[in-house]
């Protein structure tokens, strides 16, 4: 063990286990990973000793501790930890383990739950995929009980990057020194167990009685976010947290961030005991509200990690916010959906609000495609659930509650993390995708001389203005404001018409001066004004109206037709010819609220 006398008390238990201890308060036991020693926890000890009684042990075969058996099991290392608690006279403790130490912490909690308050499994392995399992087995076979300088260098490169970032050079050097100082035989025996123990708890995690935090880095390829998410899913009181940008040695590479998450998780237990639990400390409700505002009757892809660590997802538009404090959102999934059992039993999920360029992604996740994630870019979110690149907003949630309602289940999520941007959302309305950005961009681009009008509907009636020359739609020079009497908004305000502009309906140029005309669909509240010039005309009666402008007559004829089939497009051209562009191309699949996989 490295000399820790400057910041901790050092000792040796009757069984030969070396340990360091600092601080006072609720006991916290730290168990390091393969190749390390108790001193690797210095950053956590220094940050926690003012609040906790912190103990870090040298694992069997490491530091000052004796060798494990020739062919050890996880139980041998868990029993070592129990003996340490007995030696120190501690009935119960929080247990924090890293990598191999995380497996030991789990074993300890499964064997002796009465001795454990909570566990934190940092960068734990679970059911390695075949290619990764083979690589680890090959490394284990190559160990011969002698020092391996080349192997140490490869490990440092895997843990910190190659080359090591300048800001992590000191941390990487300390880690390398620990690897170089470890007993080669102790390392070999422990690593061989580590290489084959990744599935030891697969059948036992559902019986884990204590709260458990499974935390890893988004860039840790060997102890991946999918592994932590899968363990959290199995543990009855499990939770997954993924630290963005971090690798395997995040406890020493990002000690402030990692320790804060550890302490926050442990503090939940203490707060519950004293009835002082805090909800959403530091959560920015204002930003959360703005992120929710990114959703415009939109399209989402809901994602999670399945029981085998595989990403799962489905397209849904049944999304809404529930509460700001605590931050809650919900989404629905049909009972008949093949993905229902996965999502209904998940501990976490993410809701991705799609942008107007992600129609293809919406279609894929609404389809029966075998591998929906193969054609989209994604990364694990805070809970391990997939977050799709390019989303307008994402809400990464723990499952707060599952509510059965008719033929659907309502997934209520407590938002753990969220993000949003200014991209335009993808909309879905009346069986078709819509791109509201088209309308918003056109509004922003209109010049003061542009003729801006609206087809305003209320209950099957269209609002017209009757003049000496016949009937006109409300229009003005530019969109303007209520105070500008020549603009569309100024006209509507003057006539006390409360209107809500919706989607773009037609754009054309006309006349020798090539004036642009922009017309929108919208709705209105029946005006209380006694203005006799206002007329509400049934849609079926529009054809018989006297309308002087042939371009307006043509546009209204199209409006009547499209109303009859409830499918609208946008006319682009001039006053003589042009084309109607549909808001969405017909597709084989439509938005649904269930995984069709």
TrEMBL record:
UniProt-listed Pfam families: Abhydrolase_1 (PF00561), Flavin_Reduct (PF01613)
Matching InterPro entries: AB_hydrolase_1, AB_hydrolase_fold, AB_hydrolase_sf, Epox_hydrolase-like, Flavin_Rdtase-like_dom, Split_barrel_FMN-bd
Keywords of this entry: Hydrolase
SUPFAM superfamilies for the chain: alpha/beta-Hydrolases, FMN-binding split barrel
SMART domains in the record: Flavin_Reduct
GO molecular function: FMN binding; hydrolase activity; oxidoreductase activity, acting on the CH-NH group of donors, NAD or NADP as acceptor
Gene3D superfamilies to which the protein is assigned, alphabetical: alpha/beta hydrolase, Electron Transport, Fmn-binding Protein, Chain A, Nucleoside Triphosphate Pyrophosphohydrolase
Record domain Flavin reductase like: where: 292-435
Domain of life: Bacteria
GO cellular component terms, semicolon-separated: membrane
This protein's name: Alpha/beta fold hydrolase
Lineage, uppermost ranks: Bacteria, Pseudomonadati, Pseudomonadota, Alphaproteobacteria, Hyphomicrobiales
């Amino acid at each position: 063990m490295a000399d820790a006398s400057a910041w901790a008390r050092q000792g040796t238990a009757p069984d030969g286990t070396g340990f360091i201890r600092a601080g006072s308060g609720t006991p916290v036991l730290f168990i390091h990973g393969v190749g390390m020693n108790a001193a690797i926890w210095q950053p956590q000890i220094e940050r926690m000793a003012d609040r906790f009684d912190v103990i870090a042990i040298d694992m069997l075969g490491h530091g000052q501790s004796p060798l494990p058996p020739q062919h050890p099991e996880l139980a041998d290392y868990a029993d070592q930890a129990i003996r340490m608690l007995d030696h120190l006279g501690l009935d119960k403790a929080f247990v924090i383990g890293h990598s191999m130490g995380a497996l030991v912490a789990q074993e300890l909690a499964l064997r002796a739950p009465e001795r454990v308050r909570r566990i934190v499994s940092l960068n734990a392995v679970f059911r390695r995929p075949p290619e990764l399992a083979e690589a680890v087995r090959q490394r284990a076979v190559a160990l011969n009980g002698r020092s391996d300088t080349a192997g140490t260098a490869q490990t440092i490169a895997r843990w910190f990057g190659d080359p090591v970032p300048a800001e992590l050079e000191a941390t990487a050097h300390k880690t390398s020194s620990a690897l170089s100082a470890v007993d080669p035989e102790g390392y070999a025996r422990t690593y061989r167990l580590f290489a084959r123990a990744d599935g030891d708890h697969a059948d036992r995690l559902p019986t884990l009685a204590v709260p458990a935090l499974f935390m890893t880095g988004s860039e840790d390829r060997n102890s991946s976010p999918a592994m932590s998410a899968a363990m959290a899913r199995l543990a009855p009181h499990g939770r997954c947290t993924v630290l963005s940008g971090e690798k395997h040695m995040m406890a020493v590479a990002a000690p402030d961030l990692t320790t804060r998450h550890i302490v926050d998780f442990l503090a939940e237990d203490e707060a519950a005991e004293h009835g002082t639990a805090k909800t959403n400390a530091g959560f920015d409700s204002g930003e959360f509200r703005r992120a929710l505002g990114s959703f415009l009757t939109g399209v989402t892809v809901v994602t999670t990690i399945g029981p085998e660590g595989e990403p799962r997802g489905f397209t849904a538009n049944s999304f809404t916010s529930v509460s700001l404090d605590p931050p809650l959102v919900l989404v629905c999934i049909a009972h008949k959906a093949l993905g229902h059992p996965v999502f209904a039993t998940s501990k976490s999920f993410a809701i991705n609000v799609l942008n107007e360029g992600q129609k293809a992604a919406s279609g894929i996740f609404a389809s029966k495609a075998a591998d929906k994630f193969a054609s989209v870019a994604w990364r694990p979110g805070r809970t391990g659930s997939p977050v799709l690149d390019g989303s307008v907003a994402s809400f990464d949630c723990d499952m707060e509650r599952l509510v059965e309602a008719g033929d659907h289940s309502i997934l209520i999520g407590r938002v753990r993390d969220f993000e949003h941007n200014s991209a335009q959302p993808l909309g879905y309305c009346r069986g078709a995708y819509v791109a509201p950005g088209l309308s918003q961009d056109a509004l922003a681009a209109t010049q003061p001389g542009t003729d801006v009008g609206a087809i305003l509907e209320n209950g099957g009636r269209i609002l017209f203005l009757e003049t000496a020359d016949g009937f006109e739609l409300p229009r003005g020079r530019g969109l303007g404001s209520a105070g500008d009497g020549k603009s569309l908004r100024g006209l509507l305000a003057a006539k006390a018409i409360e209107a809500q502009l919706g989607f773009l309906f037609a754009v054309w140029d006309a006349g020798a001066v090539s004036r642009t005309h922009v017309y929108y669909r919208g709705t209105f509240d029946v005006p209380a004004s006694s203005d006799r010039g206002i007329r509400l005309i049934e849609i079926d009666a529009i054809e018989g109206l006297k309308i002087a402008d042939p371009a307006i007559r043509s546009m209204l004829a199209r409006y009547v037709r499209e109303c009859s089939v409830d499918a609208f497009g946008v006319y682009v051209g001039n006053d003589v010819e042009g084309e109607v562009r549909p808001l969405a191309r017909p597709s084989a699949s439509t938005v649904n609220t269930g995984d069709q996989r």
